[in-house]
Amino acid sequence: EVQLQASGGGLVQAGGSLRLSCQASEFPFDNYGIGWFRQAPGKEREGVACIRNSDIRIYYADSVKGRFTISIDNAKNMVYLQMNNLKPEDTAVYYCAADSTFGTSWLLEDKDLVEYWGQGTKVTVSS
To answer: What is the DSSP annotation of the chain?
Structure first.
């Protein structure tokens, strides 16, 4: 059972930056996609960014392109989300997630395809 541990959330002013981290207990299969979803109050959970084990970034939500960067450290089983120029609309609980289908969960925008979820980390951006 893969376990994902997210951290790094907090309160930041608009225009600020945060870096989220996700520690995976293992990367058990070669064809995984791993990354982040988020859920704002009263809204559906949505994909934010996804990366494959080959360090290929395959997905960014349109709303975060140019501001967020996902990266992976395979040696440490760590995934990071650098979030710059944060906006109040980025306020949400961010979830680390993984699937074994090369990130199909993100590409098809279907959270039900995610196989592993971490606990959320809350990001609040004040205006």
So the answer is: ---EEEE--EEEETT--EEEEEEES----TT-EEEEEEE-TTS--EEEEEEETTS-EEEE-GGGTTTEEEEEETTTTEEEEEE-S--GGG-EEEEEEEESSTTHHHHTT-GGG--EEEEEEEEEEE-
As a whole number of Å, the end-to-end CA separation of the chain is 40
Q: For tokens 């309160």, what's the residue?
A: 11
Instruction: Please write the tens of the pLDDT for every residue from 33-53.
Output: 999 999 999 999 999 999 987
C-alpha dist (Å) from residue 19 to 16, 100, 108, 114: 11, 25, 25, 22
CA distance 95 to 11: 16
